């Protein structure tokens, strides 16, 4: 059996499962963390466990390979929240304790899986610290844009005196939310260019903010790393004002061109070394190429989208992921 931890709307998971079925692997279970109507039954002893998902009984020994696509927190809502009448502070405190119980149980189950079953991805590294990864990338020999973090107006003004061309973005994952009540509403945050004159509007004290040197790009590169192979694509977003700072501000009327891209050998090796240091065997990398053809590392997303590379570049990455999972399954069986 191949077990995939994902979300119900992830199209890449659907395509990989189709490839697994086409390649003869029918015994595949998809565990979506946001399937709220699924009843989960757990039986756990030291070092072993089984669970029933959607009436399918799964034993640890039955799992031949795992893919941590998304959604490791599949046990959400298993610990029932409580309300203690007239005790709001205790109710809040106790429910937070229940969330901690859930987190510890989830960590333990995935610890057992990852030490027993070969896996693509990681349950513990799906949300990397971007600042730590930047430091590790620099230590690996990759170029990174200069950045500053400050929490007061004069600090921002001081940075502007050193670097008059700045952008700002989230230090963690950006805001990405679809309103479930108003289904037509979405909330997103992007990389934004800063206006020096706007500093006068800031209060004296602000929340710690990430300021980064704006790289005047020739183009962007998205890399999908899969077990020591880099699949790369250039994104020609530089000539469109809408996508110039952040290509995710998609221009639906005039989309950016996506073309296959071959990484220079030295850059390819440094990316592979960084993944080795992070102990990750898959993930998506964002790079920016400046006007002098210098490649700047921006970030790694262990669960980033790869369909955007697969189709335009004819990489058939969904098939590649399926083949890697089948290889791991055969390795465990043998």
Rg from Cα: 22 Å
Strand neighbour order, sheet with most strands = 16-15-14-17-18
Residue stretches low in confidence (pLDDT < 50, at least 5 long) are: none
The share of residues in extended strands comes to 25-35%
Count of distinct strands: 18
**Strand and helix order:** EHEEEEEHEHEHEEEEEEEEHEEHH
> Ends: how far apart?
14 Å
Strand pairing plus helix content: what structural class? alpha+beta
Let me know the average pLDDT: 88
Helical amount:
25-40%
General form: globular
Main β sheet profile:
5 strands, antiparallel
Q: How many structural domains does the protein architecture include?
A: 3
| Tally of alpha and pi helices | 7
Protein name: Grasp-with-spasm system ATP-grasp peptide maturase
Organism: Adhaeribacter radiodurans
Spell out the key features of this protein:
D-amino Acid Aminotransferase, Chain A, domain 1, 29% strand, 334 residues, five-stranded antiparallel beta sheet, four-stranded parallel beta sheet, alpha+beta, 7 helices
């Amino acid at each position: 059996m191949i077990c995939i931890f994902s979300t119900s709307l992830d199209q890449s998971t659907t395509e990989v499962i189709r490839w697994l079925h086409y390649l003869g692997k029918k015994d595949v279970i998809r565990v979506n963390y946001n399937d709220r109507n699924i009843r989960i039954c757990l039986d756990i002893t030291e070092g072993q466990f089984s669970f029933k998902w959607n009436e399918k009984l799964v034993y640890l020994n039955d799992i031949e390979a795992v893919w941590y696509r998304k959604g490791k927190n599949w046990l959400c809502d298993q610990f029932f929240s409580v309300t203690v009448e007239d005790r709001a502070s205790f109710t809040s405190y106790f429910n937070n304790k229940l969330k901690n119980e859930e987190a510890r149980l989830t960590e333990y189950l995935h610890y057992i899986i990852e030490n027993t079953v070969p896996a693509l991805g990681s349950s513990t590294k799906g949300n990397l610290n971007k600042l730590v990864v930047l430091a590790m990338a620099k230590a690996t020999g990759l170029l990174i844009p200069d950045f500053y973090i400050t929490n007061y107006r004069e600090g921002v003004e001081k940075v502007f005196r050193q670097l008059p061309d700045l952008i700002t973005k989230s230090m963690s994952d950006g805001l990405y939310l679809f309103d479930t009540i108003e289904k037509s509403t979405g909330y997103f945050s992007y990389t934004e260019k800063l206006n020096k004159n706007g500093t006068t509007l800031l209060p004296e004290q602000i929340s710690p903010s990430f300021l980064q040197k704006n790289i005047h790009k020739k183009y962007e590169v998205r890399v999908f790393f899969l077990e020591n192979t880099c699949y790369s694509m250039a994104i020609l977003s530089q000539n469109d004002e809408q996508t110039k700072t952040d290509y995710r501000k998609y221009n639906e009327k005039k989309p950016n061109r996506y073309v296959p891209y071959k990484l220079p050998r030295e850059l390819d090796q440094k990316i592979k070394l960084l993944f080795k240091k992070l102990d990750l065997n898959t993930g998506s990398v964002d790079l920016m190429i400046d006007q002098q053809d210098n490649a700047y590392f921006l970030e790694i997303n262990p669960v980033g989208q790869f369909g955007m590379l697969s189709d335009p570049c004819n990489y058939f990455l969904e098939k590649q992921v399926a083949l890697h999972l089948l290889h791991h399954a055969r390795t465990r069986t043998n």
